[in-house]
Design goal:
about 180 residues, mainly beta, outer membrane lipoprotein receptor (LolB), chain A, 7-stranded antiparallel β-sheet, globular
């Protein structure tokens, strides 16, 4: 999968099913390379939304099990129990849907501390699926410190709409590898 990010700086992210990921910065002609199963094209938010797997956003495929489902104020809230290997860091995940679309996700650690919140909003039709064009993620590092990341997608293109030069994009052979 090739993803082009024009802002805040132009970047190309290329990843595959095996979790091999390369991030190319054309302004510096550098490439960052990583390999991690979490970088797989089948574990990205793009994958879950574009393959209409919004019901659990991949939690079940990561070993989480559905614990509880409840309805409150027009939304459905599901609670997912962590698998043993993850439970030392994440006790549970809460996922909130409005209609068929996820709007919120919360990660809770074994001490009942919220460690991450993700908000999905500004949905648009992308092909036949609804896709959130804005995602805000808050990572709580300590009780008084957090990192807020807001990602806004625009000019989304799929299938025949994609420019063929992007589909054939290759990182230049002379790009400096960053370690």
């Amino acid at each position: 999968m090739v993803t082009k990010f024009p802002k805040p700086a132009e970047l190309y992210v290329i990843n595959n099913l095996n979790g091999e990921m390369r991030v190319y910065d054309p302004s510096k002609n550098t490439v960052l390379q990583q390999q991690n199963p979490t970088n797989s094209t089948e574990t990205t938010q793009f994958f879950y939304f574009l393959h209409n797997r919004k019901a659990d956003l991949g939690l079940s495929s990561m070993g989480f099990s559905l614990g509880q489902t409840k309805f409150e104020n027009g939304v459905m809230i599901t609670t997912w129990k962590s698998p043993a290997p993850v439970a030392k860091n994440i006790k549970r995940v809460e996922l909130v849907h409005k209609g068929q679309n996820p709007i919120f996700m919360k990660y809770v650690d074994p001490n009942e501390r919220t460690i991450k919140k993700v908000y999905y909003y500004n949905y648009t039709k992308l092909g036949v699926v609804d896709f959130p064009t804005t995602i805000t993620q808050i990572d709580y590092l300590t009780a008084s410190d957090s990192i807020v990341t807001k990602t806004a997608y625009g000019a989304l293109k799929v299938n025949d709409e994609v420019e063929s030069n992007l589909l054939d994009f290759n990182i230049p052979a002379n790009a400096k590898v960053i370690k």
